[in-house]
Here is the input.
Amino acid sequence: VTAPIITLLTDFGTADGYVAEMKGVLLSGAPTATVVDLTHEIPPQDVEAARLALARCWRRFPPGTVHVVVVDPGVGSARAALAVESAGRLLVGPDNGVLSPALLAGDATVVALPVPPGASATFHGRDVFAPVASRLAAGEPVASLGAPWPTAIVRRTPEAHRLLDGTVQGQVLTVDRFGNLVTNLTARTGGAVLVGGLRLAVRRTYADVHEGEPVALVGSSGFVEIAIRAGNAAYVLGVGRGARVVLAPG
Amino acid sequence: VTAPIITLLTDFGTADGYVAEMKGVLLSGAPTATVVDLTHEIPPQDVEAARLALARCWRRFPPGTVHVVVVDPGVGSARAALAVESAGRLLVGPDNGVLSPALLAGDATVVALPVPPGASATFHGRDVFAPVASRLAAGEPVASLGAPWPTAIVRRTPEAHRLLDGTVQGQVLTVDRFGNLVTNLTARTGGAVLVGGLRLAVRRTYADVHEGEPVALVGSSGFVEIAIRAGNAAYVLGVGRGARVVLAPG
Amino acid sequence: VTAPIITLLTDFGTADGYVAEMKGVLLSGAPTATVVDLTHEIPPQDVEAARLALARCWRRFPPGTVHVVVVDPGVGSARAALAVESAGRLLVGPDNGVLSPALLAGDATVVALPVPPGASATFHGRDVFAPVASRLAAGEPVASLGAPWPTAIVRRTPEAHRLLDGTVQGQVLTVDRFGNLVTNLTARTGGAVLVGGLRLAVRRTYADVHEGEPVALVGSSGFVEIAIRAGNAAYVLGVGRGARVVLAPG
Here is the structure.
């Protein structure tokens, strides 16, 4: 039998020891688990950034993987704590939209988790989500861990809109470490992208332009990106998250 | 048999490859071990920050876990290299107070480790502590690894002081990634905290105040914290590590 | 049988989810593997920094370890994707010099990897290197994964030069997290180092000088370093990567 896989996606950073506490709880509850860091560098309380990171990777892991997602500005409030089964993967996290990629896919099963007596009101990652993740890793079914939760708030991906003139209006969803602008536009090579006063043909890869030149391309998740070859597009173009991007027919 | 767990807590960052070298040594010596990153983002040479991170998590891991703690400004000097058994966990690190949480708990066994011939004078993490951690993970007893060390310097938690007027004087021990001020005061909800010119009632969680408002609460380790809901208390209040905090009766 | 070890060394950071995607692919292909983070904090597209980090650690891991090295500014261009067997370790990464430590050692076997149909033109880490790493971890021989690649570009370590006057001229190769200046000079204690207008005797360790004083010593990889005890040499001395350093006879 393969060891169960438990992943962690948080906005805790690592310096303060919060992630370390969660790992201790996970490995105490599931000593044979493989605990995998997805990231702890989500900007503090940035639910949207966490949702995007989760969207990229949650289905890349094998069925049975348990994803623990803790970006939780409402910890200790009335927001529900969820466990989800979707597409064969298991997820736990707060009901604030961070789990949307799994909630929107297939026929997700969702339960609301009880908060155990004595749990800290400020650290459900350690006292609610990690213990449940250990139990899921050990094979307990989602349905046994809480009550069905029919009213989950699901925050969806901001969608691009097709206009009457044939263009599609989207936005920059995130700026990655390289300064690449990742949008919510889907495209094939051949069209053109309007962003920050520039019109860029949609190319195949960075190396299709010279160093220092801007390029639009279809990124690795299928969405249009704007980059500067060997440079930082966000910095050079002065364009950031939320900026409008328009896709024109090819 | 469950794979042995070895954790790493350092101030090395990861970019330079020092942590990678230690992982190579650990997995060469203990190929079945689960190597767990606690953090490598302790500020350079900040023994106190490392002590606090260790205090949070070392007992959360199962008995038998080996914690490797290397924040070691005195490397190569006469400071001792220690191996400790405490509360069923095993720890290695320099004798500079970083291991205090384990040294202060229960009936700790402490030995001083020899420095092997050929060890680098600047990287005992790789050449002294990692090899010993592998041997501890393989089941070698602490007592066999070095000579008893009766004179360990133990740096204790800065303690809060009760004054004649009934207040308790403490300080901010650390500022976490969210800008929360973590103190050395213990309290129950009901009292009030004086900090940076403010008087704050001790509440249960962040969501007990409006966004942008300051709140005092009992944090997840049992100590009083001061936070700004959806904000950064250190930045907004202009209060940092070492600042005085006073707890007044409820 | 011990679980196979797969390490990751990238410039992706972790916040964007790219590393998480790779881990999902690796664990889907090799569910029993131990996936080890070496670093993801290489500065964006800094092949030389990645080469240095790899040089430090690749042989510290046990034979059979698979190192996945993705710092890849030329992704999607004509640069080859390589798999290497060297000194019993296995490596995958782009043909841009990042794998030099392994290519220069012993009798390396090198093949060029095919790009599978449907692979993203901007993320070979996920679609080319991770799948091959899983297969190497499962025991497939390097020779079966691609065509022999006799023309690999190998970028060598910048070498120090001995001058007629007996001095050796080198440079600062990197500045580590502590601000230590790591050079390409090899030395034994006894000589002296000229850097940034200072002449420093080569000592054994940081503690051989007072706090705040500069010190030259032979670092843990055998190269001369310049440090400030309990300080940051790069900042205090105003010396950075590429700066000239001269070694004078003792």
